[in-house]
């Protein structure tokens, strides 16, 4: 009888353990999708930094690392903003790698000469006149505080290559700045694209319906692909299993509104507080945030085009412009088709973004952002 009671007790214990395993939430590292964030990272807040938070706030994403390059700003200042963001939200376990400091071919001096023939380019990222003037390797005092953590010794291109070899066909490359880092990885490892799971890009422009002066007369111009056209065309000619593009057309359907910022101010989440505190002005497009969120939930996109995609490297007036073809007019080139997002369910995206940013950061340890709302 005693043996029977003992056996019953062990059965109950084993059943309890089994039930706990089955009913417990999945472990992030075992269940998550792998992504590398390749980004120009002007900050604090703004679309570059906020898009990183979309991934970092999701319990279903394993961010393997963040690779940074010159684009919206100079690389080394962007690296500092990225390191500081990770400190503020408590994710300093994620490595940050420095990448390209300049485009492969385009230079600022050559671009200035080009403008004398073909006209002014409204936005030039790190080269824009409104950017703070300092050298490409200088890091000024940051508004959010300078980081104490350090950038990795490994460069961006080699990190990208190492990760797709470590996790073949599992890693999404999220590229939301110029394409230089990804092009360098392809040049060093010809099978890089094939070893990735997919490529997700914020970039390009087809025919946006807007009065925005940057696009109304130049509908095929978009900064990320324009800044380094040679890198862009290398990337689009590589053999990716899948390419998804978030262009200007769909991005301008979104805005970080004052109402959204007011909602985030109420949050006790470091990520929500970070956006609310450091956003420079409400109303900006959610360029990169949408590209990240639509990868997490493709149902946000209500219409897309599936077309051949490339970037002009003709040094004339079209240099850096987006080019697309259908099966009917495609040239005899080895081109990749891309899923190009054209419309978004804005209320659904808005709700998702606010929920993500108001939630605790998965895996956070000792976040340094002071959550006092007295700012």
TrEMBL record:
<keyword id="KW-0378">Hydrolase</keyword>
<protein>
    <submittedName>
        <fullName>Inosine-uridine nucleoside N-ribohydrolase</fullName>
    </submittedName>
</protein>
<dbReference type="InterPro" id="IPR001910">
    <property type="entry name" value="Inosine/uridine_hydrolase_dom"/>
</dbReference>
<feature type="domain" description="Inosine/uridine-preferring nucleoside hydrolase">
    <location>
        <begin position="35"/>
        <end position="350"/>
    </location>
</feature>
<dbReference type="InterPro" id="IPR023186">
    <property type="entry name" value="IUNH"/>
</dbReference>
<feature type="signal peptide">
    <location>
        <begin position="1"/>
        <end position="29"/>
    </location>
</feature>
<keyword id="KW-0732">Signal</keyword>
<keyword id="KW-0326">Glycosidase</keyword>
<dbReference type="InterPro" id="IPR036452">
    <property type="entry name" value="Ribo_hydro-like"/>
</dbReference>
<dbReference type="GO" id="GO:0006152">
    <property type="term" value="P:purine nucleoside catabolic process"/>
</dbReference>
<dbReference type="GO" id="GO:0005829">
    <property type="term" value="C:cytosol"/>
</dbReference>
<dbReference type="GO" id="GO:0008477">
    <property type="term" value="F:purine nucleosidase activity"/>
</dbReference>
<dbReference type="Pfam" id="PF01156">
    <property type="entry name" value="IU_nuc_hydro"/>
</dbReference>
């Amino acid at each position: 009888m005693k043996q029977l009671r003992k056996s019953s007790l062990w059965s109950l214990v084993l059943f309890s353990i089994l039930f706990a395993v089955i009913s417990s939430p999945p472990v992030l590292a075992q269940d998550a999708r792998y992504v590398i964030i390749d980004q120009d990272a002007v900050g604090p807040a703004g679309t570059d930094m906020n898009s990183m938070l979309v991934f970092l706030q999701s319990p279903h994403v394993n961010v393997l690392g963040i690779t940074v390059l010159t684009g919206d700003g100079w690389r080394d200042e962007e690296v500092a903003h990225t390191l500081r963001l990770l400190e503020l939200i408590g994710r300093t376990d994620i490595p940050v790698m420095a990448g390209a400091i300049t485009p492969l071919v385009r230079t600022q001096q050559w671009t200035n000469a080009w403008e004398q023939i073909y006209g002014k380019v409204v936005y030039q990222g790190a080269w824009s006149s409104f950017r703070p003037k300092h050298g490409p390797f200088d890091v000024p005092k940051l508004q959010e505080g300078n980081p104490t953590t350090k950038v990795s010794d490994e460069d961006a291109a080699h990190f990208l290559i190492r990760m797709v070899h470590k996790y073949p066909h599992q890693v999404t490359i999220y590229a939301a700045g110029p394409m230089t880092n990804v092009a360098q990885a392809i040049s060093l490892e010809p099978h890089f694209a094939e070893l990735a799971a997919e490529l997700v890009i914020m970039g390009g422009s087809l025919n946006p319906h807007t009065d925005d002066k940057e696009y109304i007369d130049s509908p095929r111009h978009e900064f990320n692909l324009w800044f380094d056209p040679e890198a862009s065309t290398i990337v689009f000619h590589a053999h990716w299993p899948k390419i998804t593009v978030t262009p200007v057309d769909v991005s301008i359907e979104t805005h970080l509104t004052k109402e959204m910022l007011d909602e985030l101010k109420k949050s006790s989440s470091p990520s929500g507080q970070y956006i609310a505190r450091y956003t420079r002005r409400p109303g900006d497009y959610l360029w990169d945030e949408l590209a990240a969120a639509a990868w997490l939930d493709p149902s946000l996109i209500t219409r897309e085009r599936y077309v051949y995609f490339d970037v002009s490297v003709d040094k004339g007036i079209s240099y850096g412009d987006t080019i697309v073809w259908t099966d009917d007019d495609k040239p005899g080139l080895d081109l990749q088709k891309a899923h190009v997002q054209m419309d978004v369910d804005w209320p659904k995206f808005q709700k998702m973004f606010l929920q993500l940013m108001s939630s605790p950061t998965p895996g956070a340890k000792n976040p340094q952002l002071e959550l006092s709302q007295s700012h």
